[in-house]
Batch of 2 targets.
Target 1
Amino acid sequence: MAGVGLSSRLEGGDHVQSVESEKVQGVLSRLVTLEPRDLCNEAIVEKCRATRDLRSCGRIVEHSLNSCNHASLCAECVQRCDVCPICRAPIRSFGTPVRTRLYEDCCRAGMIRSRPGGATDADGHPNADVRRLWSFFDIALEYGLVSVIHHYVSDVCMDDMAVSSNATVSLLLDGTVVKDWCRRTLSHIIWNLHEIYGLGSAQMRYKEAQMGRFSALLLGLSEVLESLEGPYVNESSAPIIELQQLIEATRRVSQHLDVMSWCARHNFLEDLQSSHSSISEWRLAVKNRKLAATDRAWHGNIQGVRTDTDVRTSTLFIEDAMSNAGFGEDDENAFIWETLELQHLRQTTTLSSWRREGVGVMSNLHASGMLYPPESVRAAVDLIFLEASSDLILAKKAIFLYYLFDRHWPGTNNDWKSILDDYVVTFGISRHAMLESFVFFLLDEADDSALEEACCLLPEVVSSTIHPKVPRVLLERKRPFAALDVLRCSDGIGDVRFSGSAKNDEVSQLEDAVTAVRVRLECGLLTDAYLYQRAYISRIKSIEPKQSVLKSTGMNQHGSRDWSYEMESLVEEICWLCAEKCLVAQMIELPWDKDEERVLLNCLMNLATKDPCSSTGSLMVMFYIMRCRNQEAYLVHKELLAIEKTFLEQCKDMERNEIIKNICVQRSLLVVVRVCI
Ligand SMILES: [Zn+2]
Ligand SMILES: [Zn+2]
C-alpha cells in the first residue's frame, strides 16, 4: 500500500518515534480542528487554474490562498497573479498570501511517505482524491483520533444536505468511501497479522508491541464501522448486510488477536506438559466421556418428557456450550471467510475449509469428534475465536478456559494454575465464571476424583443461574444429596423460568422439573417431591393467561400451556419411583387432588397389571378405603380379581401363583371387613 501513512507505520515501529515531531503535532491539531466538510476539500486534488502561454497551467496545487481559501494557484503562478482565478479576490490583501494544504503538511511531516502517482495505486482504486482522504483516515486511526472519522461520518456522510454537483466531491461525501476504507484497512491488518502469526510461537513473542498496536487499530476500526451502521442497524439491504459482515469480521480478528497475544506471551503453552500424552489419546478420552455420559443417563420409566427417550444420548457440557455458541452449525457469515480473507489468520485447515470442501453437515463434526478437542493450542484459538459469532465472546472465553482445564487437570505441579490465573485476569473473567468452567469440565470427566473435586467446588458455584444440567448430572452420577444442595441453593431451579429465551424452553423446564422430583425421591424426600410437583403445576396454571403471547412453542391450540400433560409426567414419575423404592404405601397417604389421583391410580393399575405379585393392587384398594370411598374400592377389587384370574390361568409358575392367591385372599378379607360391613 504505497502512499499512505498507515503502511509506513505498519512496517516499522521505530519510525514512529523519529517523526514524532512538531510537524506531526501540527498536522494532528489541524486534523482535529478541521470541519469535516473541509477535510473533504483538503482531500481533493486541485490543479492550477492560472493561464500560462495561452493555456491552463495545470500543475498540482500544494497551497491554498489565505484570502479566499481556494486552492487555485500553484506555487509559481501565485507569484505572478494578483487575484484568485476562481473568485477574483485580491491575493495580497493581508499578510502571507498562502498556506500549505493539509495533505502537503502530512507528506512533509513524514506521515505519508510517497504521493499517489499514476491513475491507479496498488489498491486498484482509481481515484487520487479518495486515496488522499483515506490517508487522512489512516493518520486519524493511527494516532487515536477516531473522532475525526466519526465526525466525517456523522456530519458529512449521514447528512442529506451535504451534496455536490461535482462528481468527485459527491463521491467523497458518500459513506461508501468510508466503508471501503475500513475494508481495505482490515485487509491490510489481516495481512500484517498473517505475517506475524506465520513466524511461529518462538518468534511471535517478540512481536507483542506490534500485536498490541494492531489490537488498538482494530478497536478504532470497529468504532468507525459501528458509527456507519448506526442509523441503519435494523435494515437489511445489501450494503448494510455487507457492512455488518465487515463489523463481524473486524470483531473476530480483534478477539482472536487478543488471545493470540496472550498465547504468544506464554509461548503457546509449549513449556507446559499437557495431561494428555497425545491428541489421539485425548480424543479417545473425550469419546469415552461421552460414552460414560450416555451410559449413566437416566432412562425414565415413563414415556415422560417430550424428548425421544428411547434413543436419548447424553451430551457433555462442552458439546452443549459449543453448539449453543453456534459451533458446528453453518456459519451464516461464511462470506467473511471468502471475501475478507479471514482464513489467512488460521494456521491449519479447520471448519471453514471443510465447509468449502463440502465435508458433510457441520453437526456431524461433534459426533466424529472433529470439533473437540482441537489438535493444538493454536488450533483451539483459531477454532474458538475465528468461528461462530463474535457476540458470544463470553461463552468463547469460557470454552477456551474449559479447554485449558482439560489440557492440564490434574497436572503434576501447579505451574498451569498460575497461567490459568493469568488468563482469567487478562480477560477479566470473574472467579465465579472460572469455577463454573472448571466444574463443567470436572462433571464431564468420567474420573471419580474429578467428581469429588466438582462436589467440593459446587458451593462456590451455585447460583440461580447455574446450568440446569448440573443437578441432573450429579443425580446420574449417584450424588443425589449434592444435587439436592444445588437445587436448594439455586433457589427455584427447575421452577418455571420466565426467560423464554432457550430453545424448547417448555420441554427443558419440564425436564428440569422431572429432575427435581427425581432428586428428592432419591434422597428419600417423598413429601418434598410431592410439594414440589404441586408448586410447579400451580405456577404453570397461574401463568397461563399471561403467556398466550408465547404461542409459538409448545402451546396447545388454545394458546395456553398444557399443564395437565406436565402434571401427568411428574405424578407418573413419582409413582414409578415410589413403586421402585417400595414407598407406595406412604405415597397413597398424601393428599392428592382429583386430577393427580386420576393419573396416580391409572399408573398404579398399570403396575398391578404388569406384576400381580406386588402389593400395588391391594394398596390401590387401601387408597379408596382410607378415603371412605368403599364403592370404588370394591370396583377396583373386582377389576383386580379379573386380572389375577387371567394371570393364574396363564402362569405355570407355582410359586408365583401361590403369592398371587395369597394376595387375593388377604385383599378379599380387607374388602369384606372394611367395605362390606
Ligand atoms: Zn500554475
Ligand atoms: Zn478564491
Target 2
Amino acid sequence: MTLAIVDQAERAELAAGTGLTPQAVSKILARLIDDGLVEEVGRRQGARGKPATLYRLRSEKAHAIGIHAGRTDIKGVRVDLGGNVLDTIATPMPAQFTPAQLIDGIASTVEKLVSPQSDSTNPEIVGVGVALPGPVDRTTGVVQGFRWWRDPAATPLLDALTHRLGRHTVMDLSINAALELTAWQRGDQMTDTLYALLDRGVGGALWIGGRLHRGAHMSAGEFGHLVIEAGGPECECGRRGCVEAVQQRALAEGDIARAAAAVATGIANALHIVDVPGVVWSGSDLEAHPEAYAAALAAELQRTLAGGAAYTIHRAVPAEVPHEDCPADLVATGAAVMVLESVYGIPARPGESLDQSLTPEPAEITSR
Ligand SMILES: [Zn+2]
C-alpha cells in the first residue's frame, strides 16, 4: 500500500509504486476517498502538462491491533492506517499455559489497547492480527501440537478468538508476520528474501516473486530445522542436530560464537537451495549479540558458491515507540499490518483481483 509508506503522492506515482494501471489506481482511490480514508491535499505542477492531484492517506481514521503470542508473554501493539505504532503493551503468561488461558490473555491485551482513546478522531478498529510460533494452519486457524501447551489436542483458535473478540481477526505464524512487516515497509523495493527470526528459537520464511512463499505444508524456508550436526542434540521437531537445537545448546552453554555459527551455516545452506539475493533477520537473540551473528554470517556466506558480496543482509529493528520500557515488537507490528492488508490491501502486482483485496464491497464507483 504505497500511500502508507509515502506522505502524499499523485496517481502516476501510485501506479508506478503498486504496478497497477492508472485506471485501477483511480478506482481504488475513489473507493478509499468514499470511505474517508484518503483525501486530496492539493496539486503539483510538473514541467509540462496539467497539474497532478496529490493524495494523502488519513492514517488517523482507522487503527489495527497486532498480537504476538510468545512462550512467556503476549505482546500487543496498536497501529494507525500507515502502520505507525501508537501504543504497546506486554502481558506475562504462566508457564505451560492452556489454550483457554491464551485466549483470556489475548482478549485482555486487546481490551487494554482498544479502550484508552481520548482523542477526538475516534478511529475505527478494523481488526486484530494474531501471530504465534506455530504450528498453525493459517486458513483454518487451527493450532495443534504446541509443545509449550498442556493441551495437545487441535484447537480451533481463530474461530474461538473471532467469537471472543467480536472483531475481524486474522492469524499467522510469527515468522510470517515479521516478514510481512518488512515487505510492507519496503514496498516495491522488496527483493526475494530469506527471513530469519532468532527469538528463543530459529524461525525462517521466504518471500519470493512479491509474496510469502509458504510451501505445501506451510513450512517453506524453515531453515532452523535443517540438520547441521548428524546425531547432534535432540530438537523440538523430533529430529537431531537441527540448526535450532545446536544454537539453543550453544546458548545454554554460553558459547555465543558457536550459536551464531550454527545459524550462519543454516542460512548459507538455505541459500544454496533457494538462491535469493536478500537476507533479513531480527529477534531478541540477534539483538543480544548482533556483532557475533553478523560476523559469523559474513564469514559463512564468503564460502558459498555465490560469495558473500552476492547477498544483502538487513537487520530489522523495532520502531521508535511511546513506551521505552515496552518496545514495539516486530512480530506484533507485523500482525497488525496483516490486518490492514486483509482489509485494505492492494496487490503488489497487476492481474490480481482488486475486489477480493478491498472491503467493504464496492459501491458505486465513478471513474476519474
Ligand atoms: Zn528440528
